[in-house]
Amino acid sequence: MKKIGIFWGSSTDNTTTATEFMKEYLEMNDHQVDIHNIADTDVDKILEYDNIIIGCPTWHIGELQEDWDSVFSDFEELDFSGKTGAFFGCGDQVGYPANFLDAIGMLAEPFMKNGGSLIGKCSRDNYQFTGSRALDKDDKLLGLGLDYDNDDEETCEDFMVMWLEEIIDDFKD
Ligand SMILES: Cc1cc2nc3c(=O)[nH]c(=O)nc-3n(C[C@H](O)[C@H](O)[C@H](O)COP(=O)(O)O)c2cc1C
C-alpha cells in the first residue's frame, strides 16, 4: 500500500473529475489517497506527503489555473528534496495547440529544480499539438495530458489507468 497526496485545481471541473477518478482507481487497488483542492489548501501541505500527484489545467493561453496561480510564488519556494511527484493536466490540443498543457511544465520545472524526483513522463505521440512548455529536452511531456474538450470521458479514463499503472511502482511504500 502506498500513501499518496493529490493536489489539484480546477475551474470548470474537468480536473476535479480526473482527480476523483484517480482516487477511486488507486483506492480500489488498495492504496491510500488524500485529495486536496489547492483553492482551500495551504501549499505547505504538499510537503506532508512523500508521494505526490499534482493536477493543473492550462487556462488563458498558457497560464496556470487561477487557484494554482494564486499559490505559485509559495509553491516555487518549497523544498521538494526526497519527494516523488507525478504531474497531470487538462488542456485543449485543438483550441490551444501552441500552449497545450503549459501548466504541467510551469509546475514541474520548480519541483525538479528544488530537488523533487519526477516520474510519469509521457510520449507526445498520443496527442496532436504544436507547442507546449511541458515538453522536456527529449521532446517528452513532463506529465499526463487529458483533453476532455476533444476526447470522451472513457478515453481520458483509459489514459489515467495506463499512466497510474506505470507510475505506481515508482512511489515509495
Ligand atoms: C479561455 C480559455 C483558455 C484556455 N487556454 C488553454 C491553453 O492555453 N492550453 C490548453 O491546453 N488548454 C487551454 N484551455 C482548455 C482548458 O484547459 C480545458 O478546457 C480544461 O479541461 C479545463 O480544466 P478544468 O475544467 O479543470 O478547469 C483553455 C480554455 C479556455 C476556455
What key attributes describe this structure?
173 residues; six-stranded parallel β-sheet; 8 strands; 20% strand; binds flavin mononucleotide
Report on the architecture of this protein:
This protein is an alpha/beta fold and 173 residues long. It has one domain (3-170): Rossmann fold (3-Layer(aba) Sandwich). Helix content is 30%, strand content 20%. The chain is built from 4 helices and 8 strands; from the N terminus they run βαββββαβαββα. The strands form 2 sheets. Strands 1, 2, 3, 6, 7 and 8 form a 6-stranded parallel sheet that branches. It has a two-stranded antiparallel sheet with strand order 4-5. Helix 1 (14-28) crosses helix 4. The longest helix is centred in the first third of the chain and has 15 residues, at 14-28. The chain is globular, with a radius of gyration of 14 Å. The termini are close together. The model has no long low-confidence stretch (mean pLDDT 98). It binds flavin mononucleotide. Flavin mononucleotide (FMN) binds next to helix 1 and strand 4.
